[in-house]
Amino acid sequence: RKEVEQDPGPFNVPEGATVAFNCTYSNSASQSFFWYRQDCRKEPKLLMSVYSSGNEDGRFTAQLNRASQYISLLIRDSKLSDSATYLCVVSYNQGGKLIFGQGTELSVKP
Amino acid sequence: NAGVTQTPKFQVLKTGQSMTLQCAQDMNHNSMYWYRQDPGMGLRLIYYSASEGTTDKGEVPNGYNVSRLNKREFSLRLESAAPSQTSVYFCASSEGGGRVWPTEAFFGQGTRLTVV
Predict the structure, then answer these.
(1) Residue B83 phi/psi, 5° resolution?
(2) B50: which DSSP letter?
C-alpha cells in the first residue's frame, strides 16, 4: 500500500461546479498536511495547509479526518483557471520527510 | 528572492554516464529534498536531509547518491545513468527537521533529464 493515496482522476467538471478530492495516508503519527497545485509539470506550489479544525481560503476548503486518516479538498464555483493537478502531501516524521500522493488531475470546461 | 535554485534545467545523458544535479536554497531552511516525477506517478521522494550533515533514503533511492554540502546546498548524483532514470527532478526545501515537523516546502523549477 502506498503511504499517501489519491484518486488520479481525471475529474472533468463544468465551470461553476463543486468538486471534492480525497487523500488517504497510512501513518497515524503524521502531523503536517498540505494541498499543492501543479500546472503542466511545473514546480508544485502550496495551495493550502490543512489544520485539524479544517480551514477555508476563498473557494477552497480543506478538512482533516484523523480517525479515518484522510484529508479532503473542496473547490466551490470552479473556474477555468482551476484546471491543474492537485497533490496531497503528508509529513511522516519530525525529521522532515514529506510524501506526495500521485496527484488528481482536474479539468474545468466552459 | 531566489528561493530554491536548481541546475541544470535540461540534460541529456548517455547510458552509463554520471552527473550531479545541484540545488541551493537561500531561505535558511533545515530540510531539503530530492524528488522525481514520472507521468502518472506523482512526486516520489528519492532522498531527504533534515539538517546539515544528515541524509536519509526516501521511497526510490536506488541508483542515486546525495550530499548535503552545507545548510544551503543539497546535490543529487547519478553514478551510472540508466534510461529508467529519465524523469523530471525537483529539489525542495522546508523549515522543520530535527524535532520540528516540516512546514511548507518550496520547490526549484526542476531538471528535465533524459537518458538515452
Answers:
(1) -55, -30
(2) S
Question: How far, in whole angstroms, is CA A50 from its chain's centroid?
Answer: 9
CA A53 to chain CA mean position, Å:
16
Q: What are phi and psi of A29, to 5 degrees?
A: -85, -5
Query: How many Cα atoms sit within 13 Å of B25 on the Cβ side?
Result: 27
- The residue of chain A with its CA nearest to that of B42 is A102
CB < 8 Å from B in window 7-66 of A: 8, 31-32, 34, 41-46, 49
Contact B42 A45 (CB under 8 A): no
Determine how β-strand A45-50 pairs with β-strand A33-38: antiparallel
Helix (H) or strand (E) holding A108: strand A104-109
User: If you search the block for the grid coordinates 531527504, which residue do you land on?
Assistant: B48
List CB contacts of B102: < 8 A, sequence separation 6 or more: A32, A91, A96, A97, A98, B31, B94, B95, B96
**Chain B residues whose beta carbon lies within 8 Å of the beta carbon of residue A45:** 107
**pLDDT tens track for A52-94:** 888 999 999 999 999 999 999 999 999 999 999 999 999 877 6
pLDDT of res. B103? 79
